[in-house]
Amino acid sequence: MIEFGAAVNREFLLESGVAFLNHGSFGAAPSAVLEAAERWRQRMEANPDLFLREILPGELREAAAELARFVRARPDDVVFVDNATAGVNAVLRALELRARDEILATTHTYGAVRQAIRYVCDRTGAKLVEAQITLPVADAGILFSAVADRLSERTRLAVLDHVSSPTGLIFPVAELAALARARGAHVLIDGAHGPGQLELDVPALGADWYVGNCHKWLFAPRSCAFLWCREDSKRELHPLAISHHYGEGFTAEFDWTGTRDFSAWLAVVDALRFFDRLGAARVRAYNHDLVVTAASRIAEAWQTPLDAPAAMHGSMIALRLPPRLQAYGPPTRDTAGRLQSALLAEHRVAVAVMALGDALWARISGQIYNTPEDYEKLLSI
User: Fold this and answer.
1) Residue 381 has what pLDDT?
2) What is the phi/psi pair of residue 2, to 5°?
3) How far apart are CA 237 and CA 231, in angstroms?
4) Which helix or strand (DSSP H or E) is residue 264 part of?
């Protein structure tokens, strides 16, 4: 059994001396998975024509089938995309929206997703409606009510975060999806942080579409994500790049949009094996206990609140920065980015800084290579 903490660092290529508390942003793939991706690239380069024409189609569908089994879905309902944002864009572009239609999101919706919604609204005359999420949150019922209260007869799509990117809050997506669909709206779940961090049964969530990243909590190389689609929602869904297999069906269209490096998608099988070797439940329990314990200790030292109770989180949690760091600048995206860079450069700690409402917040992650000592750097800032 692999021991977590400092001992497992040898499995990764992380820079020595940096407290890496931001796995949630870009992930970190283990060496074994990166080596698997390199083997796929070498196999492709040995005979590109043979590989791309004859070997790739079957291998890609098998990789998709392995991933589908992991999220308890049918293989034919799962396709690869580069990242969750690309999957969200594919869904949004498939909608037939009219003026006065509404797309419902929240004030914690990921920035790139919000921009994609704005784009389709600008082109169609539809309206973006945002449910206000104010921190701290007392319980999941508040998240449910905030979204439910903004559903209307004009809501054509509800975009729900499974795990909020700014905070790590887990939303009651199954209950919200049932309510939205009962009121006639389609449902897209942004599960960018779901695979690996949460135990998933994607079809059981009741959405029309689910997008998830594999490079964050599932240890796959970057540019590996998936899009799941209900059978009755496939007809109008197409990849962003229309290519040779247009009109031939969901998997055919998405599997080949043109020449690319397919190694990250194919290596997801090795990422799944690595994750299974660690023990999925064991990983989730270690990460959760580590990060919520550290966050509680830091919040007590800073005398600032956590974003919500520990039970509403998986492997990420946010806490309000103390007054001395709030003084860095106004709570804007630019200030958050500059402060995040300063913390890394001056204190050797990688942590996500978010501007939420009228304050700056730190979102910290917990991953198997982290130890309680990694979080000590935040106490001394």
Assistant:
1) 84
2) -75, 130
3) 11
4) helix 263-266
Distances (CA, A) of 213 to 25, 196, 217, 272, 322: 11, 9, 8, 13, 32
Token reading at 155: 């809501």
Query: Is 6-21+279-379's fold the same as 36-273's?
Result: no
Tell me: the pLDDT tens digits for 197-224?
Answer: 999 999 999 999 999 999 999 999 999 9
Report the residue count for the chain.
381
| Domain residue spans of the chain | 6-21+279-379, 36-273
What CATH number should be reported for the domain whose range is 6-21+279-379? 3.90.1150.10
* pLDDT of 72 above 90: yes
CATH of domain 36-273: 3.40.640.10
State pTM to two decimals.
0.97
Q: Residue 83's closest CA among 130, 158, 27, 20?
A: 27
How far is it, in rounded angstroms, from Cα 84 to Cα 212? 5
DSSP string for residues in 58-104: HHHHHHHHHHHHHTT--GGGEEEESSHHHHHHHHHHH----TT-EEE
Cα(3)–Cα(369) distance, rounded to whole angstroms? Answer: 9
Average pLDDT, the chain: 97
CB atoms within 10 A of CB 324: 9
**What's the Rg (C-alpha) of the chain?**
21
327-356 pLDDT per residue, tens = 999 999 999 999 999 999 999 999 999 999
